[in-house]
């Protein structure tokens, strides 16, 4: 074949929407900037997290159950809130880079 993607697009009768759907199947790795071939899944790598304090929420959780007579009942519970973590930065990488990043993260010792 030997023709570039855009030459193929220009000369063929493939519609623009078909090209767009073809492009959705591949992605650029955000670490090595290489175009990852079709069929390889992207991996979302969490770069950093932050601590967040969740507020107390009254009647936030709902549980539906059936009593002894088979009647549908609904109960509400309060959410106590508290301290938790939240994703601050995330990148979309290829499996090779994800493996490297995880190895890097595991080698870092917290002193
Ligand atoms: Zn990569």
Task: Determine the structural class based on helices, strands and strand pairing.
Answer: alpha+beta
Bound molecules: zinc ion
Distance between the termini: 56 Å
> Radius of gyration, rounded?
24 Å
- Give the mean pLDDT: 84
How would you characterize the largest beta sheet?
2 strands, antiparallel
The proportion of residues in beta strands is 35-45%
How are strands sequenced across the largest beta sheet? Answer: 1-2
Count of helix runs: 3
Shape label: flat
Query: In sequence order, what are the helices and strands, one letter per element?
Result: HHEEEEEEH
Number of domains: 1
Helix fraction by DSSP (H/I, runs of at least 4): 25-40%
Please mark out the parts with pLDDT under 50 across 5 or more consecutive residues, or reply none: none
Number of beta-strand segments = 6
Write the layout of secondary structure elements.
Elements: H1 5-11, H2 16-23, E1 27-28, E2 35-36, E3 43-54, E4 57-66, E5 72-79, E6 82-93, H3 95-107
Antiparallel strand pairs: 1-2, 3-6, 4-5
The protein binds zinc ion.
Overview of the structural elements:
By secondary structure, this protein is of the alpha+beta class. It has one domain. It has three helices and six strands; from the N terminus they run H-H-E-E-E-E-E-E-H. The protein has helices spanning 5-11, 16-23, 95-107; strands at 27-28, 35-36, 43-54, 57-66, 72-79, 82-93. The strands form three sheets. Strands 1-2 form a two-stranded antiparallel ribbon. Strands 3-6 form a two-stranded antiparallel sheet. Strands 4-5 form a two-stranded antiparallel sheet. The longest helix is centred in the C-terminal third of the chain and has 13 residues, at 95-107. Zinc ion (ZN) binds at residues 29, 31-32, 34, 93-94, 96-97. Zinc ion binds at residues 29, 31-32, 34, 93-94, 96-97.
């Amino acid at each position: 074949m030997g023709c570039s993607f855009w030459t193929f697009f220009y000369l063929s009768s493939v519609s623009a929407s078909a090209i767009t759907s073809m492009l959705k199947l591949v992605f650029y790795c955000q670490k090595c900037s290489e175009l990852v071939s079709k069929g390889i899944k992207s991996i979302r790598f969490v770069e950093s997290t932050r601590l967040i304090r969740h507020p107390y929420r009254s009647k936030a959780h709902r549980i539906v159950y059936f009593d002894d007579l088979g009647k549908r009942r609904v109960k509400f519970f309060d959410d106590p809130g508290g301290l938790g973590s939240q994703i601050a930065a995330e990148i979309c990488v290829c499996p090779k880079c994800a493996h490297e990043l995880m190895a890097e993260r595991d080698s870092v010792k917290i002193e």
